[in-house]
Amino acid sequence: MINTNIKLLLVEDHKLMRFGLKSLFEEQDGLEVASEAQNGKDAIEKYKTTHPDVTLMDIGLPDMSGIEAAKQILELNTNAKIIMLTSHLSEEEVVDSIKSGACAYVMKDINTDILRMIIQTIKDGAMWIDPLAVPILRDKNQGVIPQRQMSRAMFRQQHADLTQREYEVLKLIVEGKSNNEIAEELTISSHTAKAHVCNIIQKLLVDDRTQAAVKALKEGLV
Fold first, then answer.
1. DSSP 8-class letter at 214
2. Which residue has the higher pLDDT, 116 or 136?
3. How far is it, in rounded angstroms, from Cα 12 to Cα 121?
4. Phi/psi-derived region of residue 143, left when phi > 0, alpha when psi is between -120 and 50, beta in every other case
5. Closest by Cα among 123, 121, 131, 127 to 173
6. Given this chain, do its domains 6-140 and 152-218 carry the same CATH topology?
7. Model confidence over 41-67: pLDDT tens digits?
8. What is the CATH number of domain 6-140?
9. How far apart are CA 45 and CA 38, in angstroms?
10. Is the pLDDT of residue 2 over 50?
């Protein structure tokens, strides 16, 4: 029987955190921790031997930064899928992570169901940026984000059934706004904001608001 699990390389210098993440993934169908590393040099060697589908890389490693380790892995394989993990938001690290070729920048306090979804979408070729980091990249995006698969004009053409208001709501979803915050921003009721979000999810053929944000970023809408 063919193993269809997503093979993970878990890079984390804190043993307790590494154990917790490994235990979490072992409880998830479709995910498998194929190897672990506690520093950058070890991560590079483990990548060479295990060829993981996705690497989860802590940025704060003892011997070199996770960003530097990611760069060296991507020199070995330009198609490597790397998710950068961090416990704090840093403008420099956000920009450097994406410039390095990493596919995602994720805060460690993320919901576990969302993390699983991110791993799957990264495996499938997407990018994912924590909503808290989106404003940084939007302000700094002068060649930071790689060329998208689809132009904004083409995205709009293929999703022409989204109304102008729904585009406004989608932009706020990408920024991580809640329904109440969207309602306040656009001066509409929470009920109306929720209805717009539901319509966007249906029209983009995704399962939830997080996937809607991922798709919008991947296809270059924002």
1. H
2. 116
3. 22
4. left
5. 131
6. no
7. 999 999 999 999 999 999 999 999 999
8. 3.40.50.2300
9. 11
10. no
Question: How many Å separate Cα 155 from the centre of its chain?
Answer: 20
Tell me the percentage of the chain whose pLDDT exceeds 90.
32
47 Cβ neighbours under 8 A, 6+ residues apart: 9, 55, 73, 76, 77, 80
Q: Which CATH architecture has domain 152-218?
A: Orthogonal Bundle (1.10)
Neighbours of 68 (CB within 10 A): 16
pTM of the predicted model over 0.90: no
Residue 120 CB contacts under 8 Å (≥ 6 apart), including other chains: 6, 30
Residues 6+ positions from 71 with CB-CB distance below 8 Å: 100, 101
* Residue whose tokens read 């169901």: 113
Domain ranges, ordered by start, for the chain? 6-140, 152-218
Over residues 168-183, the pLDDT tens digits come to 899 898 888 889 999 9
Residue 13 CB-density burial (10 A; 0-12 exposed, 13-18 middle, 19+ buried): middle
Residues in the chain: 222
Mean pLDDT of the chain: 83
Band of the pLDDT at 13, cuts 50, 70, 90? very high
